[in-house]
Amino acid sequence: MDRPRTWRGLLEEHGDSFLKWLESSGRELASLNAMAETLEQFLIGLIDHARVEYPDAPMRFWELIPVVRACCEKPETFEEYLAVPAYAYVHLLERYRRTWSTLRHLTESGVLPLGKLGTRVLDVGSGPAPALYAIDDFYRALTDFARESTLRP
Prior knowledge:
The chain contains five helices and no strands. By secondary structure, it is mainly α. The chain has one domain (7-147). Helix 2 packs antiparallel against helix 4 (83-108), helix 3 (57-71) crosses helix 4 (83-108) and helix 4 (83-108) runs parallel beside helix 5 (130-148). It is elongated.
C-alpha cells in the first residue's frame, strides 16, 4: 500500500522545480514591479489629491520620510496625514521583497506552510501589510506552477 503524499514530501519532490520555475518565469520580479507600480500610482494620486487643500503636500511628504525612518515605532509619528504614505514609501517594497525571500527559503527547506484549504496568515506589526501581499502573490505563483506542471491529479 502506498503511503499518502505529505506536504513536506511534495515540497521535497517539487520545491526545486518550483523555485527554478519562479526564476525562469520572472514571476518574483514581475510581482515586485507590479507592487512598485501600484504603490507609485497610489502615492501620486494621494499626494495630488492632498495638494488641492494643502499645496505643500509634496514637499511635506518628502520631509516626513526621515521622520518615519527615525521614529516609526512611535504612534505620534503618524498623527500627521502624510506620515502613513511616507511610511509605506519607506518600508512597503523592501518588506515585500524580504517576505518573498523568506518564502523561497521555507520552500528550499521543505517547510513552506501548505494546507488543503489554503494557508491562513496573520500579519501583525509590519505596517502597510507588505507580508500579506507578498504571501498572496507567492502562493498564487505556486498555484500557477502546479497548474502548468504535471502535478495536477
